[in-house]
Amino acid sequence: MHPLIAATFRKGPAADLYSHLVPAEPMSARWLHEIRESWGRKDHPSLKLFPDIRRSKQTIPSLKPGVSVAVEVFNPPGASTGAIVYLHGGGWIAPMAGKHLGWARRMAALTGRTVYAVHYRLAPEHPFPGGLEDCIAVLEEVFNRHHQHDVCIAGDSAGANLAAAADQWQRIHQRRRPDRLLLICGVLDLQLEQHRSMQELGVGHPYNGLELLVYQRALYAPSSADWTNPLASPAWGDLSSLPSTLVIVGEHDPLRDDGLDYAEKASSCGTNLQVHIGAEMPHGFVMQHDLVPNAAHAAEADILRFMGRDAT
Questions:
Q1: What is the pTM (predicted TM-score) of this model?
Q2: How far apart are CA 168 and CA 132, in angstroms?
Q3: What is the pLDDT of residues 119-154, one digit of tens each?
Q4: Short-list 186, 31, 185, CA closest to 93
Q5: Measured distance CA(235)–CA(190) in Å, rounded
Q6: How many other C-beta atoms are found inside a 10 Å radius of the C-beta of residue 230?
Q7: How many CA atoms lie within 13 A of 259 on its CB side?
């Protein structure tokens, strides 16, 4: 709460009105709690698959002094030298859920790569660039101490935003960039309302509509000045020299054209990238093998080809 409002709330001329209107727990805090409870469930059937994948935990110093980042590491038997740094979705505000960890385990098994799943700091307690600082630190650690070649940074939804933004940070600071960039149903431009699919599908959408996305944006990047900052909106960055990139969108996702517009801009700058469109699919379909198996497996086949592995 802004200090001016907080002071007026306690003892200003409108204190009685505030006490009448504002519940003990503000409505926005209740929304946040409900989202974290419903989206951040730790259990998921996919966690029982691929039992030969070894799961461990590490902590890595963030770019922010005094902050440590928890990372879950999935090691397949006979792992290759390649790696995936995986950044989960959840609107920058929800923790890594069981479905995310199950997907990280699945990618380790199917690609033969070690997967690093990052528990980055969440908004609103840590707005932009808090979570991004954590993701960059993990990427740098993977580069420096673990994997000299073929590192992919991957993310879904808000995680795709962080993945693309981390690549932009590396470019701006002339640091080693990831070798591959995998962006799944991403929020790549915080100017959400500018994209045709958001205008056509976003208002009143039952699952991933404009109303929800605007709330998430308000918690992560409340200043509109950041909506064209390449580190918050990577679509506004220099896309002329992207690493090998795969963009995945759902045809019925209000964020569809966010991803497609990013891909078109990159292509117009001379970047050669791949696009996969899930026909009639909503947001986040890639991880839902039990519910939309054909679409999820089709996207997965393209991911594995992108990673240099044949789908089985």
A1: 0.94
A2: 11
A3: 999 999 999 999 999 999 999 999 998 888 899 999
A4: 31
A5: 9
A6: 18
A7: 30
